[in-house]
């Protein structure tokens, strides 16, 4: 049974004022009119619904969708502050302002502590429009912030899912592509061997191109797989002795080192908290590059590490051909190359893999270089615990 | 006196069977090679059933894992379960590098496991090594017809 | 070199044969990680991480066991039976390399699960050739079961 709900639509004749839907909890009709008039005066185009008890209040919340609730503290059948409880229960972020006779400071403060947005005296209604305006402003800011947080969470979620899909795709594609590719590579090679000189000259050339293309594709796919694997594999973190690791790295680069006459020096490398296989990969790629992109002199590569307050910083310095600073960021992008395939071999994935590993490890990687003056690749590895930074 | 070597290749990819034949043609021209495309045919061949009644008993089986009807591991298990076929050495020859496939193969009694190489030279080299070891160095179990 | 980084466990009590085998493996650069056991008992201790080899772990088995048949303390067939009979060790490739010409020995060995069986040639040159072939086959071509998924060779990605 609905209570005495009276809808008052008050038309204003002055310049258009902002519409305001007010839910007024008040039993005295004169007081109610005074409140509405105070809001009208130069301020709002008020649409008000007046209620006196809990049931009408709840009903009006649904039908009227108020933007602000103005409540008297003391009603014959109800307490104004109960309105706040109902708003909370329904999860409605609607400002509630107490409009009351003298309450005393202590009680007023208590009401605000309990969640009332503000408190206006019935003989100080001139303040009311300003109070309402401020309450609405705060609410607006609150909902903007809330929405922004929701959007961000949604975006992050989408991104994570999209990344996972992409990695899954890269892995499956590379993996499944290997088989038909193996057929193409093996048989173009067989054709090349069996029929060389037996068909015409063009045939030899065509088969040669096909064969080379297939072999290049095989390496590309293996590189892609390696790249996608960085995300997929569960990294196992342990204390890795980098000095010992360098021995393995040297061994795996043995033929390149021997061929180029490279001199690799490492000094006082620490133990760091990381995945051993991945750390090895990073060092192998960086040192391998240093050897590959050498100048006319035999390559010298030095690996050092220094401890800063926040992390370990590794430097891999070489005397190779150097990199122009404008390409400093580019070189870490997948498949980005700075040279023609005929000048220096490679697919341009080694540095992309390094970057992925280092960043997953919580660090950064970058290069300092000038053309003709060698390069220094630097990367950081965070400490295992906060204590490591001290001492 | 070494009798003619009998080899059975179980692989559903005719391209791989051809490659294997080409490779063995070079290093073991006298070797007799039979091939079947799936696990059911493999066991029928080994059991000399129906159309395989006159099939020769292989000295060596080269077995792929990814087969239709009955997979390579099932064939392996069936072979190693029976008193007769269990002596025949089985080489798993598969593109899979997954450790679980390797371990499972050994657990079921595979004699060895070779990953199918991705390029021609390595493929031929692997075939040659298989032939040289199993038909050149190793002593194979008696045919015991 | 740790006992957990052994590629080949060579079980043979003949000093000459051991020397010959190591020499042949060395020529192929395969001799770095070989452990020699002189009798069956030591071979079992090694593989079952017991006795003086208690520091070894089942997670890092040798890639190959080269096993002679005639051994002191515990003979080769017994070793084979125990290794192939235990779930912790039965996937380890065991290749018998013996001077025995008994067909019965060969049949028993294959029956017990030997991965392969070789008869030691009398001729020095043939012996070397055989070791070279088996080294190449079992250490390079063959894929041994590994306890952990270790990427075989970190390809030099550019």
Q: Layout of SSEs?
A:
The complex is a heterotrimer of chains A (391), B (145) and C (158).
Chain A: E1 6-9, E2 19-25, H1 29-40, E3 45-51, H2 54-64, E4 68-71, H3 80-89, E5 96-100, H4 105-113, E6 118-121, H5 128-195, H6 201-232, E7 237-241, H7 242-252, H8 254-260, E8 263-266, E9 271-275, H9 276-292, E10 300-307, E11 311-318, H10 350-360, E12 365-369, E13 375-382
Parallel strand pairs in A: 2-3, 2-4, 4-5, 5-6, 8-10
Antiparallel strand pairs in A: 1-3, 7-9, 10-11, 11-13, 12-13
Helix pairs in contact in A: 5-6, 6-10, 7-9, 9-10
Chain B: E1 6-10, H1 14-27, E2 32-36, H2 39-46, E3 60-63, H3 72-81, E4 90-94, H4 99-107, E5 112-115, H5 120-137
Parallel strand pairs in B: 1-2, 1-3, 3-4, 4-5
Chain C: E1 8-11, H1 15-27, E2 34-37, H2 40-47, E3 64-67, H3 76-85, E4 94-98, H4 103-112, E5 116-119, H5 124-141
Q: What is the number of helical segments of chain B per DSSP (H or I, 4+ residues)?
A: 5
Low-pLDDT ranges of chain A = 1-13
What string, H for helix and E for strand, traces the elements of chain A in order?
A: EEHEHEHEHEHHEHHEEHEEHEE
**Strand adjacency order, main sheet of chain B:** 2-1-3-4-5
User: What would the average pLDDT of chain B be, to the nearest integer?
Assistant: 91
Helix and strand content put the structural class of chain B at: alpha/beta
> Major sheet of chain B: size, sense and barrel closure?
5 strands, parallel
**Which superfamily, in CATH terms, is the homologous superfamily of the largest domain in chain A?**
Histidine kinase-like ATPase, C-terminal domain
What is the class of the largest domain in chain A in the CATH system? Alpha Beta
Distance between the termini of chain B: 17 Å
CATH class group of chain B: Alpha Beta
Report the helical percentage of chain B: 40-55%
- The spatial strand order of the largest sheet of chain A comes to 1-3-2-4-5-6
**Overall pLDDT level of chain A:** 86
